[in-house]
Amino acid sequence: MIKARIIVTLKTGVLDPQGKAIESALGNLGIDGVGSVRQGKVFDVEIEGEDAAGAKATLDAMCEQLLANTVIENYAVEIDNR
Amino acid sequence: MKTAVVLLPGLNRDRDMIAALTTITGQVPETVWQTETVIPKVDLVVVPGGFSFGDYLRCGAIAARSPVMRAVAEAAAKGVPVLGVCNGFQILCEAGLLPGALMRNAALRFVCREVKLKVANATTRFSSAYAQGQVIRCPVAHHEGNYFADDATLKTLQDGERIVFRYAEGTNPNGAIDDIAGIVNAAGTVLGMMPHPENLIEPEHGGTDGRGIFESVLGISASLAA
């Protein structure tokens, strides 16, 4: 079993109202010194088998086709090599 | 005049759309369930509003990958007019039938109110019943109507006169770029819009400004429909 983590983030320049709201809430809590917050998503995925190269291709395909909207989002795939 | 309405779990404006199409065409639309792979032969396919699949992942993302949307894409490729309203617009963008994406409203609040729309292009098959520059009333009800496209895509839309409706008179409810409320594809056969024209089609609704979209695309003259 191959374990992977996919991180989806908004592209630079795309307005993130949720991140802005979190920034403002942090200010309300008195947590100072926050430059900016951008909200993203994390997916933990298990791929059957031990073929790391094949798993990477599968993970990239699922990002391109579903997990990320590449109009507004970037994605990064991390495979757990332990 | 035959129409079809796509049904997906979590939509909630399908009944309003069916009622509107029935009133306007005099015929009850066919309904096409999410698992169906063929769209019946019709003059208009509508993807109505709601919260398909609970808006999980991103609004419209799961619905856009359902079997029925592949069938909608095939129908659109053959030139069958397709209208997506609200969640339907989000689904058409996620399915790649329209460019750009709908993001969380800039003010983060769900908006349910009436806005003004300016007809930015009255030469499309969805807007020919209106006058160029006409301002119409239309209700909106959404949380993610903040249209976004990158600079190149936006320029393509502007240069191609593919922006059909813009929020007018300071009523942009969601922060959409260039006040975009509705756009068409390059062929002019697929319209996506956030506002709900199906909710303003008979005097009992308080107005009939939304009728023009259906009358335009179905080739029904206003005098006959009245």
Structure description:
The complex is a heterodimer of chains A (82) and B (226). With 82 residues, chain A is an alpha+beta fold. Chain A has one domain: Phosphoribosylformylglycinamidine synthase subunit PurS (Mth169, Chain: A). The termini of chain A are close together. Helices cover 25% and strands 24% of the residues of chain B. Chain B has a single domain, classed as 3-Layer(aba) Sandwich (Rossmann fold).
pLDDT below 50 for ≥5 consecutive residues: which ranges of chain B? none
Structural class of chain A: alpha+beta
Helix content of chain B: 10-25%
Share of residues in strands of chain A: 25-35%
Annotated CATH homologous superfamily of chain A: Phosphoribosylformylglycinamidine synthase subunit PurS
Regarding quaternary structure, how should these chains be classified?
Answer: heterodimer
Distance between the termini of chain A: 11 Å
CATH hierarchy class name of chain B = Alpha Beta
Count of extended strands of chain B: 11
The Rg value of chain B, from CA coordinates, equals: 16 Å
The CATH topology of chain B is given as: Rossmann fold
CATH first level of chain A: Alpha Beta
Percentage of residues in helical conformation of chain A: 25-40%
Please indicate the percent range of residues of chain B in DSSP E strands (runs of 2 or more): 15-25%
Give me the CATH architecture of chain B, please: 3-Layer(aba) Sandwich
Approximate shape of chain A: elongated
Q: What general outline of chain B do the C-alpha atoms trace?
A: globular
